[in-house]
Design brief:
The chain is mostly beta strands and about 100 residues long. The chain has a single domain, classed as Rieske [2Fe-2S] iron-sulphur domain (Rieske Iron-sulfur Protein, 3-layer Sandwich). It is built from no helices and eleven strands. Bound molecules: FE2/S2 (inorganic) cluster. The site of FE2/S2 (inorganic) cluster has 11 residues, from loops.
Length: about 100
Amino acid sequence: MALIELCSESDLDHNEARLFSVNGLDIALFKVEDNFYALDDLCSHGPGSLSEGYLDGFNIECDFHNGMFDIRTGEVTAPPCMDPVKSYVVCKQDGKVFIEID
Ligand code: FES
């Protein structure tokens, strides 16, 4: 397991989503209240980029076909998506935001 730094906590506004490309991964990072959540950016249904979707509470709506995922788990919350997207454990240390990768 390794920690990969994405950004500073203050880099994202509340209810903002942003794409980070690190270690060959495209990660959608979401900030809701003071917590961060990270998913694979690529929608499991097609070419949608989840960081460009519409964030509503803990749901991210893909802007391609309006499928939705829970940003806390990556589980599908609305069709047409069928498969979850990978979620990552997020850690905050010294004002920085990291994800855990295997
Ligand atoms: S590509 Fe995301 S819902 Fe179809």
